[in-house]
Amino acid sequence: MQLWLIPILPLAGFVLNGVLGRRLSKSAVNAIAAGSVLLSFLWVLKTLSALSVFGGGNPLETPYVEHYYTWIQSGLLNISIDFAVDRLTAVMLLIVTGVGFLIHVYAVGYMAHEGGYYRFFAYLNLFMFFMLVLVLGANFLLLFVGWEGVGLCSYLLIGFYFHEKFATDAGNKAFIVNRIGDFGFSLAVFLIAKQFGSLDFATVFGQVKDLPVEATAGVITAISLLLLLGATGKSAQIPLYVWLPDAMAGPTPVSALIHAATMVTAGVYMIARSSQIFLHSAFALDIVALVGLTTAFFAATIGLAQNDIKKVFAYSTVSQLGYMFLGLGTGAFSAGIFHLMTHAFFKALLFLGAGSVIHALSGEQDLRKMGGLRNYTPITFWTLMCAGVAIAGVPPFSGFYSKDAILSAAYQHAPWMYWVGVFTAGMTAFYVFRALFLCFFGEYRGQHAEHGEHGRDEHGQSQPHESPPVMWIPLAILAVLSLAGGYINIPRWLEPMFKPVEEAPGTEWTVYVSVAAGLIGIALAYLFYIVAPGLPESIARTFSGPYRWIYNKYFVDEFYDSTVVNPVVDGSRTLLWRTVDARVIDGAVNGIGKDARGIGGFLKLAQSGSIRSYAAWVVLGSILVIAFIGLMGGAR
Amino acid sequence: MPPLPFPPTVPLSWYLILSAILFTLGVAGFLFRRNIITVFMSIELMLNAVNLSFITFSYKLKQVDGHIFSFFVMVVAAAEAAVGLAIILTVFKNRQTLEIDELSSLKN
To answer: Does domain B12-100 have CATH number 1.10.287.3510?
Structure first.
């Protein structure tokens, strides 16, 4: 079936664009970048139809594995380059290549006026390669390779505007924070290798499945918690979520592709993939649910008060990822993956729409300077509205189905989790529609002239303008998917892999409550930002204390700075640099040199320069040797 | 037949004494002469003194090892002479002297 073609095609695109891109024309770069991803997408479709995924019957009951070669063989450990497709991978492949292709097309329009054009697309293709390796890999090490690779591409693309300090800082922050999570993940991989003697998914999960729950419970819990640490890094959960909002410094298509639709969901995918391990540790699952719920709630509250349109959506992403973790943690793995898919549709759409707005305003991201744009950019407006109703959980759109699946699983698990989730859903609807209303309704609050100085898009146009078709067509497709994506019944599809959570009778009302929460959120946003635009100001003044906390993101960055970053920096500076490096290491090195000079200075006294004295020494030496041998009793 | 006024063969010790005398002369020349060429010749003298004792013992013990050793010494001495004379020539070209005490630039 040639699974290897799927990731290799974007890699070829990366190599071509990376090596030759500088000399190629823009249209050639476009064709290579988007074309390679399109081919990859088509190959996914062909592979999956060859595996009769789209037909009836029961395809992919067992994973389809392709073995390429042995990578590492050391003692009993045997790690191969294997790609595997099962039902979970099939979903991920379609999301990654499908949404990825749409975003590539969009980026052709969005990046048209940017410098470093070929560099951007080369990185984007490299990202696609690693992401596909991540989802196709059939063992933990290959998963880890993809995991690290997407982290690298994320770093490169966040810092794409590398001449801006804040962008490079954000890139560093993302990379370093992810290092903490990746450290946990690598420890988990080591533990798995030690415990099971293999890293193959099939072997490891087969062994775990047969274990009684009590056996090796401690190790299993440790593995699960370390995997969770890795996932919190990559998927921006508490306590490692801080990098994602800053990552919005990258170009908007990057935010859509990497920081909304695909890479940040890698943690969710990884936990779902390791569900057998997590199912053996109820404690770890509870932690997953708690982390998810807390993240969902707090990120949503922060999202209420952000003024940068991309920041709003970034906190929304963190919050929605929290939902997915809640789904995973309550045992509804398929619901988590379902939400992953619908979220990929509507959040990619939200970001691309935001990008379209920013494009229309020549680089303006502040919601307070937008307004009334529905007359200028009608297509963006309508597609973003589709995304809005989808994320708010309005039936019958996609977000409703996936969010409902998660919330009902949460209710089975613990009712209080359900209520927090519902409250969060209300906040989600509120802040998304707040952003949309601020952006599209009311009067235009920006200046009509002189947009150019913001600099990223130089058009010479002073009016807000609709984006070109190459940008709005992907928006339209994603809008359709956001509206209709709920009809793709992921939980049913994943049933052979994850035991479904049975809906308890008499809990139908939970659906109505969560829908009502979403509608109330929308209504409040309408009230606050369209009917009575002065209201939010006065509320913010009344509750100035809490508002300040939320507006400043609970001072989490400042807290991390003072508790982690500054101690590490100061410790490195005073202890490691000034003491260990400058005193101990340099001292040892210089001291050895100084001693060598001293000894040499003493020894050089023997070098008289007179050849005859050397000769005398030679003679004396040989006499001494002979005398010594004679004294010892001859040569025998 | 009247006895010969000297032993029928030269006794072994004579060869060894000759070898020792030659070696001592070589050492003395090596230590006390000032001309590099003379010093060099003294070294050759020492080598040949050693060769002589090698041959002596080889003859006495009826073993071929001593011969082989002395051939080796000769080969090495020839090579050494070639290199050594070349060095001496170069030294003379550069310094216009072969006085061994004046060639002390390696001092300290």
So the answer is: yes
